Amino acid sequence: QEQLVESGGGLVQPGGSLRLSCAASGFAFSWYTMSWYRQPPGKERELVAAIGGASYGHITKYSDSVLRRFTISRDNAENTVYLQMNGLKPEDTAVYYCKGLNRYNNHEVWGQGTPVTVSS
User: Fold this and answer.
1) Rounded CA gap, 3 and 77, in Å?
2) What is the mean pLDDT of each successive set of 10 residues along the chain, which is 120 residues long?
3) Residue 94 needs a FRET pair 20 to 30 A away by CA distance; which of 25, 43, 49, 63 works?
4) Distance between CA 85 and CA 52 in Å, rounded?
5) What's the chain's Rg over C-alpha atoms?
6) CA 61-65-56 angle, 5° bins
């Protein structure tokens, strides 16, 4: 059974840091492009960061709003992708979702989301 399970969300003060984790199982994780998306309250889901799979050299990309504050990384031995979030702002408040994409057949796997609230 394909599964992605996010963890690490919570309440943090502005300027603080959080590290999200997404544990994968049931599919060939190392070959999948892994992404973090977020959905702020009342808004559309948006891409935050992505990291390529084994055939894409683990290339990373970020949305302009998180560039130089967030870092995406992956550990293929642990089947886990991470999102290190520094310098958090209230506008980073959202439910954060992990997604796996097989670029050969466009098959997607989504996690259930983990909430992040940035507030004083």
Assistant:
1) 16
2) 96 98 96 97 97 87 97 97 98 98 93 97
3) 25
4) 19
5) 14
6) 5
